[in-house]
Amino acid sequence: MRNKNFALITGASEGFGKALALECAGRDMDLVLVALPGSGLANLACFIERNFEVRVLFFEHDLSKKEECIRLFEEIKQRDLKINMLINNAGMGGTHFFEERDAEYYYRQIELNVVAPTLLTHCFLQIPERNSPSYILNVGSLASFFYLPKKGVYGGTKSYLVAFSKSLRRELKSKNVYVSTVCPGGMNTTPMLILQNKNMKGMGRWSVMNPEKVAKIAINGMLGRKEVIIPGFWNRLFMFLDKLLPRWFKEILTDRSMKQSKAFTNPVTYSIQPLKPAI
Ligand SMILES: NC(=O)c1ccc[n+]([C@@H]2O[C@H](COP(=O)([O-])OP(=O)(O)OC[C@H]3O[C@@H](n4cnc5c(N)ncnc54)[C@H](OP(=O)(O)O)[C@@H]3O)[C@@H](O)[C@H]2O)c1
């Protein structure tokens, strides 16, 4: 008989979330995938079910809205799904000066990167018949640890996830619930990031990883009950150097690397105008 536990992955339609979904499917885990409406989750669910012997359910919700986070878990309860893994992956990135975006943008970023994982974790822990052991994996970033220009709000949201996860982990250990945070450096996920990463130089460029490789390390780390998972040699080296180097020197290095990070246009920030008919 099939194991009835599901792994719930948010932001599973694209990028790192999709890589996590494929990694979990490869380990014979049944999946609940969540992303925004119209993001192609139906196709992904169908692909995974055809290629792996697992059950895949999907829910389309805007997790930047509190009521939709709650509705997701109501639906899970109604369908009596047993979830013993929660992977809070959905997140909004961005590399730009603070004043370049409006207040609405930051509000949404904080809702998605901070409020949603907090609420979803709370809902997850309320499931009365949750099987044990259970796992929570929060997706942070290397930016959780480095206070980089152009990453102020993003880095802050990811620092929150590390602090929240570490603290919660201590509370839940005795209840057989294990909380981990994975903090990847640059990954080739969206076309824009692939372009940005290609234009980087030196160690920054060498440290870029493919999401599939990071997903494998992340799931190994989560199941191995690691507190903080830093994928890749270069990223671990950055963490090590951060402890060794003086602050002024680190600031010169990171300022230089952020200057090199060329801003590419993200097509989702522009509405596409219909072509005017030729007169
Ligand atoms: N890429 C990197 O270099 C990097 C590095 C460190 C950490 N991370 C973290 O890794 C995670 C995934 O990043 P990624 O690069 O894979 O991003 P991505 O390719 O843009 O994927 C983001 C995923 O989140 C979903 N999503 C976005 N807004 C949502 C919302 N309001 N409600 C529900 N789902 C939503 C997207 O669904 P739709 O397809 O429907 O939009 C998509 O599935 C993020 O938390 C990010 O901060 C990324």
In short:
The protein is an alpha/beta fold and 279 residues long. It has helices at 15-26, 41-51, 66-78, 103-126, 152-172, 191-198, 202-206, 211-223, 233-244, 247-260, and strands at 5-10, 30-35, 56-60, 82-88, 134-139, 177-182, 228-229.
Number of strands: 7
The strand order across the widest sheet is: 3-2-1-4-5-6-7
Give the helix tally. 10
Low-confidence stretches: 267-279
Order of H and E elements: EHEHEHEHEHEHHHEHH
Please describe the biggest sheet, giving its number of strands, its sense, and whether it closes into a barrel.
Answer: 7 strands, parallel
Distance between the ends = 67 Å
Q: Estimate the global geometry from the Cα principal axes.
A: globular
Bound molecules: NADP nicotinamide-adenine-dinucleotide phosphate
Structural class category: alpha/beta
Helix content: 40-55%
- Structurally, the number of domains stands at 1
Q: Over all CA atoms, what is the radius of gyration?
A: 19 Å
CATH architecture: 3-Layer(aba) Sandwich
| Beta-strand content | 5-15%
CATH class reads Alpha Beta
